[in-house]
Amino acid sequence: MTAFDEATAITPVSDGCYHIRPDERFAIVFGDGTAGAVNGGVLLATAARAVLDTSPHPYPVATSAHFLRRPRPEPAQFRVAWLKQGKTAATARATLLQGGACVMESTITTGTLDDPGGDTLSWACGPPALPPLSECTRLASPSGRPPRGGFASHVDLRLDPATAGWLAGRPRGVPEMRAWFRLSEDRDPDAYLLALAVDSLPPVVFGLARVGWSPTVELTWHMRGVPAPGLLRVATRCRRVSGGWFDEEAEVWDSADRLVAQGRQLARVGRGGPVWDAGA
Amino acid sequence: MTAFDEATAITPVSDGCYHIRPDERFAIVFGDGTAGAVNGGVLLATAARAVLDTSPHPYPVATSAHFLRRPRPEPAQFRVAWLKQGKTAATARATLLQGGACVMESTITTGTLDDPGGDTLSWACGPPALPPLSECTRLASPSGRPPRGGFASHVDLRLDPATAGWLAGRPRGVPEMRAWFRLSEDRDPDAYLLALAVDSLPPVVFGLARVGWSPTVELTWHMRGVPAPGLLRVATRCRRVSGGWFDEEAEVWDSADRLVAQGRQLARVGRGGPVWDAGA
Fold first, then answer.
1. Which of B66, B175, B268 lies nearest to residue A107, judging by beta carbons?
2. What residue in B sits closest to A223 (Cα-Cα)?
3. In CATH, what number is assigned to the domain containing residue A76?
4. What is the ipTM of this complex?
5. Which tens digits make up the pLDDT trace of A66-80?
6. Looking at the complex, does the CB of residue A240 fall below 8 Å from at least one CB of chain B?
7. What is the tens place of the pLDDT at every residue in A82-124?
8. How far apart (Å, rounded) are the C-alpha atoms in residues B274 and A143?
């Protein structure tokens, strides 16, 4: 069992209620070594586990989540309420509570990804261009140095050097990122890892020299395919930054060149010191 | 008061409960003249009205909605429950019920669009290229012919001819649309009209020759700016169609060339006859 699977584990306690624990190992660590909030993708993966536990369909095809409070690394509860269970899709509300207050409100529609009606219409855009893994910039060393990184020490992210200039103090002035993505531990991608991947890259505004804690306010992601084994590629872009808000669109591609997940989040522009550094 | 404002009106009946009525005038009309479901954007605009009625902040910055059942043109209720009211943002759940069953589950985070903290970081992509209004293809004539169109007769949509080939049986094979957008009645854009605009264009899969009723399963939209008076431009694109599912991303631009709203929906590929026709 990987640290990721432990961090996203659910314990059923009663009808529709699951105990979980936001895991510090997946918290963002600030430049001064203090831990920030647990990564939102970890909470999304945990929500998917809670909903799929009683879902008539196997995949979380559409998940929308609003982040209200910073989760503490203490016991918390997911309350799952089904709003409809249909033949093609089923929808549940999954509310994350800590100390009686709502930390995250999510709604998840589950379904199958092959059409039982046999619709064969298909169309796809092409995958993002990324240099080979060996030519990419490791964001944090998963081994050989102290795990100061929290989240960063449990994922193996290799940034396209074209989008990594900010790491060396030379941001390109374009809010986009591209990277190879996998867990530091050996584990093939699935729905839960896709939930992590859509919120795994450094915030796009780092490319505009605004490096700091950028809290997600809302994130919606769609699962579009069952990922093939192997590395994922994640590409993010932004369309507007203004009034302290920015959007970040994420596409996740599998090793078979298929678009397997899409996400978009609205977040607050970060302030404060750097939270990432380049690995060895 | 325009038909749109009437169709999205709310009547408070008790704490957090609002009576509404899904309005047939904004239903999609099928090729055979029968009315389909009321346009999802109309429901999103109504949800925004219900939440803003008691919101401490003026704008619906992030709205996510899951569509569970087809609304009937009969009385319905929005139940609004606040999950948090904070200084920067406030989040409410707004559930649309009809006959005791959930028709649409939405979560709305409200906020201001100017940063009270004074963050001045800004960045923006450019607007979509569209031919002048006079060179675009009118989708349905808002006057001079019988209003067989429902929704189509209350909006004035002018499609970029490059994305309108499907109207003449010559789809271009690319799932994208671009159009000028306004109400048929004279009314300047605001948050409610943006909620309509993000779900106003013909489904992108019409560009792949799949013309028919394409039900939205989930739609999330972000309000990014207060729109200037005048026409809006809406551009949609798709990244993958497979297994009977497709995504549709929408960007809405105002007359001052600012990106004022972004949306993304996951929908089912339509079947059945044409639901739009070219205007006079």
1. B66
2. B266
3. 2.40.160.210
4. 0.94
5. 999 999 889 999 999
6. yes
7. 999 999 999 999 999 999 999 999 999 999 998 766 677 899 9
8. 58
